[in-house]
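Handout, section B. The chain below has 103 residues.
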Amino acid sequence: MRFELAVVIPTENLYISGDFFMPHFIYILQSQKDNKYYIGETSDVAARLLFHNAGQQHSTRNRIPFKVSLIEQFETRKEALRREKQIKSWKGGNAFKGLISGM
């Protein structure tokens, strides 16, 4: 599933068949300073973007501001982490370039 930044990301708790469900997301941020990418996983993309842009993430503080390039949603954190690892293995390659360009 692919979202644009203008889409409101649901952060409220969802209940399905009485079971607690909290979606997890992988996100790709692009630095507006150096155009490089950051790939991460979270349950709240909006809060994570604010965290990065506030300079609170040590590995990205010198590259702010960031914009969201891609968001994918998963039912479990395990699935999201698996996808994050897969995308990080592509970073810089044609598969990564195709993903962020929407192909």
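Note. Confidence is low (pLDDT under 50) at residues 1-9, 11-18. Compare this with the example in section A.
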